[in-house]
Design brief:
binds trimethylamine oxide; five-stranded mixed beta sheet; globular; 300 residues; alpha/beta
Length: 300
């Protein structure tokens, strides 16, 4: 029996502000449309998305990253305010990153202790400060606390949009200038630029809750972000009852590191629009997304 999708209200898909999420949200939307659902897209920041998802202002979020979002996600899932829609195959990492040529100027990298001696290399030439500049993303991270706990001579300078990170990176690479910035994996960057994450002390949950833990006995956050972190999907708790077929398909969506890096590269390297990139992505991986459709639900 085919479940009738035509009368259902539109499913609202949450758009964040980094490329793979935007492309894969459009892939998700096209899949729902193939099942006969109407789809709308709604922009939200990472900090505002939780309220929007809990209240059904938006209904699905396709990329929840452990390194930037675990705390809010875990709390809201425990409170049953959002639903954990399962993990992607991909494993993730988000942390301080530099292009390889920086290593010659700051020997000892990627070990974080090397930064103690060469933070000044990363200073802003136009500033009187000799402190290094760490270019952070527009997502809240405890970088100030990490800098203090690990005794690093850096200031944090966050960009307004994710894309501004790549503007700064491309400019630095072109001029062979030291740069330290927020990056993550999977991403398109690894396919174009050689570079590494800084190896901070390994993450442990106690690092964020117990000052005694780690190299600094008085401060929290003397550690890096998790390596091999999870990547999950989230939904409004009413999603299942309202759109059962879409719910089933969304649960099955599982992206690999390659799928995500490819989605990002279609825009950030090949300059496609997000909807164009979504279409190209689906042309590239037909068996992948067809396996997410449910034969007992309608699809074209
Ligand atoms: C959430 N992000 C992938 C930008 O770190």
């Amino acid at each position: 029996m085919l479940v009738q999708a035509d009368q259902a209200p539109a499913i609202k898909i949450l758009l964040n502000n980094w490329t793979s999420q935007l492309v894969l949200s459009h892939v998700t939307g096209r899949i729902f449309e193939k099942m006969g659902y109407e789809v709308e897209y709604q922009q939200s920041s990472v900090s505002e998305q939780w309220g929007a998802l809990s209240h059904g202002v938006v209904h699905v979020q396709v990329e929840v990253w452990e390194g930037t979002m675990a705390k809010a996600f875990d709390r809201l899932v425990a409170a049953k305010s959002i639903e954990d829609m399962g993990s992607h195959q991909a494993t993730t990492r988000e942390d301080w990153w530099y292009p390889d040529y920086v290593e010659k100027l700051c020997p000892g990298l990627p070990d974080w202790r090397a930064l103690k001696g060469c933070a000044h290399l990363f200073s802003d030439e136009k500033s009187v400060s000799t402190k290094g500049v760490y270019i952070a993303g527009p997502w809240e991270k405890p970088d100030e606390a990490k800098i203090r706990a690990l005794g690093l001579g850096f200031d944090v300078s966050p960009v307004e949009k994710g894309d501004d990170l790549w503007v700064a990176l491309k400019k630095a690479v072109l001029n062979n200038k030291p740069i330290m910035l927020f990056n993550w994996s999977p991403n398109w960057v690894e396919s174009r630029f050689k570079g590494k994450f800084v190896e901070f002390p390994d993450y442990h949950p106690d690092c964020e809750t117990n000052p005694q833990w780690g190299v600094n006995k008085s401060f929290l956050f003397d550690c890096g972000n998790p390596k091999g972190g999870w990547l999950k999907k989230a939904a409004w708790p009413g999603f299942k009852n309202q759109w059962p077929c879409a719910y089933g398909a969304f649960k099955k969506i599982s992206l690999s590191n390659e799928h995500i890096a490819y989605a990002a590269a279609l825009v950030d390297v090949d300059n496609l629009s997000y909807p164009q990139a979504a279409k190209r992505w689906m042309d590239e991986y037909p068996q992948v997304w067809q396996a997410w459709l449910n034969s007992s639900c309608r699809h074209d």
